[in-house]
Structure prediction request, 460 residues.
Amino acid sequence: MHRTLADDLSRLPALLQSARDLAARELAGLSERPVVHLDEAPDHEALPAGGVGAEGALARFGERWAPGFSGSAGPRYLGFVTGGATPASVAGDWLTSAYDQNGSGAVGSWATALERETVGWLRELFGLGEAHSGAFVTGATASNTVGLALAREWLGERLGVSVSRDGTAALGPVHVLSGSPHSSIGKALSVLGIGRDRLRPVPVLPGNREAVDVAALDTALSALEGPAIVVANAGTVNTVDFDDLRAVAALRERHDFWLHVDAAFGGFAALSPSYAGLVDGLDAADSVCVDLHKWLNVPYDAAVQFTRRRDLQVAVFHNASPYLGLPVGEPDFVHLTPENSRRLRALPAWFSLMAYGRDGHREIVERNVALARELGERIAATDGLRLLAPVRLNVVCFTLADDPTQERVDALARAVAAGGEAFLTSTVYDGTPGLRAAFSNWRTSADDVDRISGAVARAL
Ligand SMILES: *Cc1c(COP(=O)(O)O)cnc(C)c1O
Prediction:
């Protein structure tokens, strides 16, 4: 064994203690560290020949890189939709590495059973019935890709061809309809060989809405010849609008389509009796995407995908030797996901759900929504700013009251970020450049809303 490696092995507990000390210090200071770092990263170093050992690596990391890492896991990073990591999920994540199980269907380990238990808990949390099965994937983009891969296979079934065997060409042109799809849907369609341009936008409801106009969707489906794919959106990134999932699902009485629901963060509305109505009908979907590194507040990377058609999932993703045939019974995750070997990313989620339960996670969701509404009220009352849409759930979408050009809005975003107190990302909503403040971190408090609105006022 290489000498430094042998050294590290002999001092493993002390090494882990050092890493733990750094992590504890960083997490203790998280609320006060600059939310983002906009200065240049250091130049790259040469590959070490001998190596400095783990303690040496920790020291170098602490000097060269750690100071430039963002406070994105902290309470005032409101860009994109960014979750933090609950205490229990961090512990679970560390142990995921310590145990280093292969989540493909580890032979001789209970890891797979733990993932199944966790998927079952999540299914319950999001109000899905037993007909849905699922698996962990890396993020909502991967979850959407898996869901749309199943949709693609289903189209083949409808047309009497097997896409997994014969390829996408066997389908001819595919029709994908959606009101306000996330950009990852286009990416998924590109990866799947369906094509980004097959995504047909359907009009949304009038009056500051991003939810699909179900009557317009009905008309668009009527104009199609064969089966189609509909992507419904449960929580749009700009203004957290929700398609009427029940009404969309009901269109299947007249039209033949696969219903995929992107509920990346909107799915968490199901945790609160006050907001659960927004995802009414989610269970009727053929496939569902929910991100976990956003509102569940587990570390990157984790999401879950659900479907009612596990048979199609096995047809697409199975990795069995031809002479062994398809897996029977409950398939291992290797037969359900794009990966073969995979991290046991269920463990951090298992830890957080075990530690805080349904109530603990519901409290995070309800507090985030209350804080978003509070910030929304302050923005609406601020001279020089106006809301672009009502605060429906956890995102405040606003802009400059006068002359909101892209340039001026970007300058405002930069000025907020430069203060180091808060971070917001810009967007374009209904043709108007604006900013979004997305609340999805378990740490965020009323005090943080004071600091965020103060930062915005100063930048203004
Ligand atoms: C964040 C998000 C995605 C993509 O999620 P990743 O985890 O970044 O891959 C997809 N859809 C919606 C609605 C999202 O908010």
Summary: The CA atoms of residues 353 and 360 lie 8 Å apart. Residues 81, 139-141, 182, 184, 235, 237, 262, 264-265, 291, 303 surround pyridoxal-5'-phosphate (CB under 6 Å).
